[in-house]
Amino acid sequence: MSTADEPVITSYANAPAKTLIAGGDTFAYRELGPVEEIPVVFFVHLAGTLDNWDPRIVDAIAKNRRVIAFDQLGVGVSSGRVPDTLEKAADDAYTFITKGLGYDKIDIFSFSMGGMIAQDLVVKHPDLVRKLVLTGTGPRGGKDMDKVIGTTYWDMLRAAVTFSDPKEFLFFNRDDEGKRAGKAFVKRLKERTTDRDKNIKVSALQTQLKAIAEYGRSTPSDLSVITQPTLIANGDNDRMVPSVLSEDLHQRIKNSELIIYPNSGHGGIFQYWQKFAPIAAKFLAP
Length: 286
Hints:
This protein has helices at about 55-60, 85-100, 115-125, 150-160, 165-170, 175-190, 200-215, 245-250, 270, 275-285; strands at about 15-20, 25-30, 40-45, 65-70, 105-110, 130-135, 230-235, 255-260. The protein has one domain (about 10-285): Rossmann fold. By secondary structure, the protein is α/β, with parallel strands linked by helices. It has an 8-stranded mixed β-sheet with strand order 1-2-4-3-5-6-7-8. α1 (about 55-60) packs parallel to α10 (about 275-285) and α2 crosses α3. The model has no long low-confidence stretch (mean pLDDT about 95). Helix content is about 40%, strand content about 15%. The longest helix is centred in the first third of the chain and has 16 residues, at about 85-100. The protein starts with 16 loop residues before the first strand and ends with a helix.
């Protein structure tokens, strides 16, 4: 945990690369924004590393909040192996937050797989989380979520054929507006030029995909235990985690707000970052 006498960094592109040891494992992370007792911890998507967060969203929140992003075990610079279930990933996150960073209360910003892990964490440790942001995600046992493996491999193939980043296909519609948004998003992810993270290994991606498929086929969690303020957002044409599952979350989580962006896919919050970033920052305001 950082101290108040450190200089305040509010640009994710300049956030220092750090590591800590917790539970015998090394976790890679970055933190920025003013020091405070309750930080906002970011839970990243499938195949995501520290370099996969949109700086426009991170920076908007970090103006007034302490933001901490981390690599799951087996990803990037973190040690160990990717857990074979999302419940285990949630346990790892709990170790990182409580034993590594020393926090007993946090807010969460999550996207896609990160939102699934965040749900498992909150269900198991409801007192740990004060506010929750769930974007591009769905509940355990969500309809058609287990189809993510086929969708991911197909879009990775399409991206390879066109020499594109797979996220342009997985996160965005393939109309003119979606293509422009996808390329702009990928460009923003490259703004950091030093201390870049290591790319995820294929074997780690495969393990994550299987864990998501298992999550999708599992018995639904009791989300009635999530009573803290919750913001849910997605695009209206999410091919990875069907948009209808965001509505499902909204119905099952008391005190939740739902935003569905038009003409957008899994990465709707990135396509509409100019609208979403200030909404998320306001929701997470201290």
